[in-house]
Amino acid sequence: MKDLNQAAQPIHEAITQNQEKLEIDYISQIKNVEELDQTELQQTLTKEFERVQKREIAEGVTKVGPHRDDLRFLVNGFDVATFGSQGQQRTTALAVKLAEIDLMKQQTGEYPVLLLDDVLSELDASRQTHLLKAMQNKVQTFITTPSLSDVAKQLIEDPKILMSKMEHLKKMNEC
After folding, report:
1. Chain segment 52-62, per-residue pLDDT in tens
2. Is the pTM of this model over 0.70?
3. Which terms does the UniProt entry file under GO BP (predicted)?
């Protein structure tokens, strides 16, 4: 979580031109989880699994585990899911996605391919520009959009434009 937080913050700040500060909180069912070392966490989870096992079996639902934990995204101290605009929510999700890509590059030595489905429509022109700058010359990206007018063409070096119509793809010569 610390790595993701550290990677996402500068990306988010770049996209928002330092107008917003992103924090990611890990919300766990285990109290003080961040203070536990791996052995203590394993012991705590084992005790919790044993404590609820019969109830889980009877109800057919898991009650304990990291899959029940959550992430909270704060922008300027406010929960973006509750108080953020659609643009802020989209910006937060994209900053986290780009941070994940950077972390993958650190782990594997290679960038993954990035697929973005209609991400520009809910962003204002400034956020679009700074998002595309954050990705520029970094990672191979496929962006879908219903309109090319959403794309800041000057920020995309040598784009390959494909138009999908009636299940057929057609290569376009220009943006």
Report:
1. 999 989 999 98
2. yes
3. DNA replication; DNA synthesis involved in DNA repair; double-strand break repair; SOS response
Residues of the chain with pLDDT under 50: none
Domain membership flag for residue 40: no
Which CATH number fits the domain that encloses residue 17?
3.40.50.300
Domain count for the chain, please give it: 1
In a domain, 126, yes or no: yes
d(CA 172, CA 63): 52
- Considering the domain boundaries, does residue 138 fall inside one? yes
User: 90-94, long-range: CB within 8 Å, 24+ apart, which pairs?
Assistant: 90/119, 90/122, 90/123, 91/12, 91/15, 91/16, 91/20, 91/123, 91/127, 91/131, 92/12, 92/22, 94/15, 94/119, 94/131
